[in-house]
Amino acid sequence: MATTRGTRRDFAALEARRMAAARLFARKVSQNAVARRLGVSVAAAHRWFHAWQEQGRRGLKAAGRAGRKPRLDQAALTRVERALLQGAPAHGFATDLWTLPRVATLIERLTGERFHPGHVWYLLRALHWSVQRPVRQARERDAGAIAQWKRTRWPRVKKTPGAAGRGSSSRTRAASRTTRLSGGRGRRAGGRPS
């Protein structure tokens, strides 16, 4: 059962397949035949056979979850998300900007677990948070002057459709480049008069 990265394996189905192998082994079916019938490698069937011989069906039971157990459970992640929604100043930071090092500090304060700031991004994605970059603006920015310029000056400088005249880069249109170059004397693309 091939898996691709990011997809979850069906552990119950994997265990059911091993139990089917145990039933076949009990009926004296060869390891090669078990591998063919269940669509697994011969090496997997070999491992299952030896586990079945040593421990019986118990040796083929699922081992439990795959991978390392998460350091933060769902309740801890919920506490972290609530704290993030309160804003950075509520937790002693100077600005209302959450950076990965700040979130790592917050997680350590709330849960006692220390995470590298680079790993914090995986936790935030699990909470469905995304990157938000603040818009950079000049300190001298004058919103009133910008609004005034948009109301009065912008309509005069803005290009309007059709103001420059008709033009096209297509060879089949009347105002195409070839027609203008030939002087527009009614010649077709082949050079014959029309």
Give a brief description.
It is built from 9 helices and no strands. With 194 residues, it is an all-alpha fold.
Description of the structure:
The protein is mainly alpha-helical. Among the domains are: 11-60; 74-126. The protein is built from 9 helices and no strands. It has helices spanning 11-26, 31-38, 42-55, 74-86, 100-111, 117-126, 143-152, 154-157, 177-181. Helix 1 (11-26) packs across helix 3 (42-55) and helix 4 crosses helix 5 (100-111). The termini are far apart. 8% of the residues are buried. The model has no long low-confidence stretch (mean pLDDT 82).
Low-confidence stretches: none
Distance between the termini: 70 Å
Total DSSP E strands: 0
Helix content: 40-55%
**Whole-angstrom Rg:** 35 Å
Tell me, what's the shape? Answer: elongated
What class, by secondary structure content?
mainly alpha
For the report, how would you describe the main beta sheet? none
Helix run count: 9
The proportion of residues in beta strands is under 5%
pLDDT averaged residue by residue: 82
Q: What order do the SSEs take from the amino end to the carboxyl end, as H and E?
A: HHHHHHHHH
